[in-house]
Amino acid sequence: MERRTIGAAALSVGEVGLGCMPMSWAYSGSRQRGEESVRAVHRALDLGSTLLDTADMYGPFTNELLLGRVLKERRQDAFVSTKVGLLVGEQHIVANGRPGYVRRACDASLRRLQTDVIDLYQLHRADPEVPVEETWGAMADLVRAGKVRSLGLCAVGARGGRRSGARLHDATIRQLQRVQQVFPVSAVEAELSVWSPEALEALLPWCEARGIGFLAAMPLGNGFLTGTLVPGEGFEPDDVRARHPRFTAEMMAANQPIVAGLRRIAARHGDTVTPAQIALAWVLSRGRHVVPIPGAKHERWVTENAAATALRLSTEDLTEVAELPGARGSWD
What is the pLDDT of residues 244-282, one digit of tens each? Predict the structure, then answer.
C-alpha cells in the first residue's frame, strides 16, 4: 500500500486506515469478538493500513485496551490515533476539556495502549464550559512533554445541518481558526462519503489550503455503502443505526439506488470489485491529504478495504458518482 503524508508534521500513514470503534462500541454488541478484532488489527498492519483510529470513550476504554494487545508486539508498524474530551455515563455523554483532565486522560490512554507516545491526539469534542484554547494548550503541553507527536480535531455537528452544505462545518472551522493560534493542527477527522459529501463544500478545502490532513470518518456510510445490509432486517438496540434517520426500513429501501450505482461502477472494474471498494476509491480521489478510516472488525473486511487502494476511478466513474441521488433520511 502506498503512503500519504498528512499535516505540517509530515505524518506518514497508509492510504487507508482502520477505524476501530466497531470492535467495541456503537455497533451490535453481540457481534463483537475480541480475538477476531485482534486478528483484524494484525491483518490491517500486514497490509499497510497503519493508521489505527480509536478513542478513550469507545467501550469506554475497552477499545484502547484491545489495541494495546497488538501494539505491545507491533508498535513500530502502527500509527496510533486516539481521542480525548468525552466522558461516558450511564445514559449520557458529556464533554470535559479541563486541562487537568486532559493530562490524566492522556496518561491513562498511554497505559491502555501499552505505548509511550501517541502519534495523533485528537480533541473529540470541545467542552462548552472551557475555552477551547485552554484545552488545546494542555494538549500542546503533551507534545512538548514527548507523550504526543501531533494534534487533531474532530468535526462537530456531523449531521445536524442535513442539507445545509457549507454551513454544516462552520462551527468546526471557527474552532480550527482558534486553536491554530495556539498550536498547529495536523489533522481533522470528519464524516465524508458518497452519501455524506458535505465536507467537500468548505471543510476539506480549508484543510487542504493549510496543509492539514483529513481523516474521512464513516467512508462506507455506517456500512450502507457496502451493499451488505438488508432493508427491514433491523438492528440491535445498542446499535447506533437503530436510531439513525437513514436506517429505517423505508429509507434503506429508498436509498438503494445509491448502492446500485456503486455496483454498476464496480462491475466495470472487474467481477471481484465491490461497491465498498468503489466508495473508498471515491474518497481517496478527493485529495492526497485525505485518508479514509473505514470501521471494520473482521479480517475479511479489512482485506477488502485495503484492496480499494489499487482502484483508479475514471472521469466516467466520477461523473456517475456525482449524479447519484442524494441520501434520504426519515426527516424527508
Answer: 999 999 999 999 999 999 999 999 999 999 999 999 999
CB 280, CB 305: distance < 8 Å = yes
* Per-residue pLDDT reduced to its tens digit, 86-112: 999 877 899 999 999 999 999 999 999
| Residues paired with residue 87 on neighbouring β-strands, in sequence order | 94
Give one DSSP letter per residue of 271-305, joined into a string.
TT--HHHHHHHHHHTT-TTEEE--B--SHHHHHHH
Cell numbers given for 68: 494495546
Question: What are 166-214's pLDDT values in tens digits?
Answer: 478 999 999 999 999 999 999 999 999 999 999 999 999 999 999 999 9
Q: Which residue among the candidates 27, 58, 101, 121 is catalytic per the annotation?
A: 58
Residue 129 grid coordinates: 464550559
Cell 474532530, residue located:
154
Alpha-carbon gap, residue 292 to 17, rounded angstroms? 6
State the CB neighbour count (10 A cutoff) for residue 131.
13
- Mapped onto helix, strand or coil, the DSSP state of residue 320 is helix
Whether residue 58 lies in the annotated active site: yes
Place of cell 462551527: 171
Q: How far apart are CA 322 and CA 324, in angstroms?
A: 6
